[in-house]
Predict the structure.
Amino acid sequence: MDYCFDDLYALAIECGIPSHNNLFAVGRAFLTALPADIAAPSIDLDQDGDLVFDWRGPQGAMLTLCLADDGQLNFAARFNDHYTRNGQDTFDDSIPTDLIGLARKVIATR
């Protein structure tokens, strides 16, 4: 998971955002809060300025979480054409249990 912190720092540099920016502090806290059995996500910055964490599984299974600097989480998950989930939640030093479950489900489908 350490390389995720490196990816986050590199993203800050690439986007010209100071790494001490609150968004990246929240992003580091989010990565730290991930359970050890959850695979590291890919990390990006969306057009709205939120951090994006992506997990991908086979046959199009995916979970995308967008994290704002205030801890607001927007998420979308797809496991097949008939089972999708999306919504909002809040990251407050811990990741909501249902989102951990969605990430585990994506990983389990690998």
User: Anything to note?
Assistant: The longest strand covers residues 72-80. The chain has one domain: 2-108. DSSP finds three helices and five strands in the chain.
